[in-house]
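Hey, sorry to bother you again with one of my protein questions. A protein chain has come my way and I'm curious about its shape. It would help a lot if you went through both lines with me. I owe you a coffee for this, so here goes:
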Amino acid sequence: MKQIKIALVNPPLPGHKQRGTGTYLEELIKALNKCTEIEVTLVRINSDISKFDLVHYPYYDPFFLTLPLIKIKPTVVTVHDMIPLKFPNYFQKGLRGEIKWLIQRQSLKGAKTIITDSYASKKDIVKFTAISEEKINVIYLGVREEFKVISSQKELDEVRVKYSLPSSFILYVGDVNYNKNIPGIIKSFLSATQKFENIYLVLVGNGFINNSIQLSDINNLISKLRLEEKVIKLGFIDLSDLAGIYNLAKVYLQPSFAEGFGLPILEAMACGCPVVTTNTSSLPELTGEAAIKLDPKNYQTLARSIIELIENASLRDQLIKKGIERAKKFSWDKCSQETIKAYKKALE
């Protein structure tokens, strides 16, 4: 049987490698390469694709020209989410962005098949593009093997010392964009500190160390609430160390207004860290009954759940077990198998 030659286009946007989109590309390539039916080649956006049977663009941005209008080969596009369009007041596109969105939307309609991370994202794609539901395949992401329960206390102690982590902390990993609701994390944490004096908040991600308007607002809020000595901001962390940090955390908190998927939540569950998140967008799909899901704007309720998870050992153990089992349902091999089905569908 003839191998299907796939051109997988490296996203042209800077910084994607250290985000969920970078994880998706890296893990998808590794999983696809296990399959003998296809031959996958990573190419640049302007590469010659004439020798390939199909082209897969694994990233889509409504305000940047990541797709060609004219497609000389059957095309598959992964659209992780439509969050910039869901919150237009917080993702300003300007006139150029508006023009690019019109081009990107039209270009997306020319794809043979669209892949997205959740049914919530599928619903948004249909809403904003009027593309038929039949064209959109929901394929869940996986969790990397590095994210697991670590039994070695020596290994955990080394991570704690390396990053000067306190004995008790709440954790968040990710971006600082509006939809992540970082002010909600900080305000919920403030309420939790009134119950536990020795608890800290650890924020992981480049957005917490690289200057930006969002970081300035975050720092101002931390200062206003007098939490400077309680909040620890770390940049990008290597996988092995990040798994250790998830293992050490008392609670993983991600009260997002919306997500396309929510990889850090899956990573936390796989590492045995109980999760408090929200009942919006993809998050109920992702977590099932394995996390506490609340209104993202109700900071007091979020804080009470954090306190309960720390105080109630039975509830904590129950969520940890459920989270570990839930995370096992998501794998990159499963993601790649479903992706290959999408490729075949596009070639029909």
In short: The domain at 153-327 is CATH 3.40.50.2000 (Rossmann fold). The CA atoms of residues 82 and 126 lie 10 Å apart. The mean pLDDT is 95.
